[in-house]
Amino acid sequence: MNMYASSARLCVAFRFKLVVVCMLLALCTVTMAPLAWSQEGASVSSSGGAEGGNPSSAGLQFAAGISNFVYFPAKLAFGIAGGVVGGLTYVFSGADEHAAQSVWTTTLYGTYILTPDHFQGNQPVRFLGVADSKGGSAPAR
């Protein structure tokens, strides 16, 4: 077997996987961005018209987008690990749902996507979720 032929196949396979991942990322961006835009338009923004297209607004949007490249994977990994640890807590605590729920609330809720409002201080950034004041759990906004 030719060593160069097998390395060429590996290179082609790697490129194919890279193209597939990029296509999936593009598909997710195209399908989820309009949903996020429609939700932002429905709610009243507390930024007072910072979406007007001025340079400051563009800078905040750029900073939010770039920071999400680091923040979102970290929060997602933390949430997935918290889901697993919460499940193990449920099993090893003798099916105590309250114990598992406290782990799930802390790890699964919170801020997943940073927006310009977070950078302006209009919304808090909550890496850890907080329990609802009624005793239940609610996602942090």
Key descriptive features of the protein:
141 residues; 4 helices; mainly alpha
Overview of the molecule:
67% of the residues lie in helices and 0% in strands. It is an all-alpha fold and 141 residues long. The chain has two domains: 1-31; 57-141, no CATH class. Mean pLDDT is 76; it is low at 42-50.
Write the layout of secondary structure elements.
Layout: H1 3-42, H2 55-92, H3 97-108, H4 116-120
Helix pairs in contact: 2-3
What is the gist of this entry?
This protein has 141 residues and is mainly alpha-helical. The chain is 67% helix and 0% strand. The chain has 4 helices and no strands.
Mean pLDDT: 76
| Gap between N and C termini | 58 Å
Largest sheet: none
Radius of gyration, CA atoms, in whole angstroms: 21 Å
Low-confidence stretches: 42-50
Strand residues, percent: under 5%
Task: List how many beta strands DSSP finds.
Answer: 0
User: From the helix content, strand content and strand pairing, which structural class follows?
Assistant: mainly alpha
Oligomer: single chain
How many structurally independent domains? 2
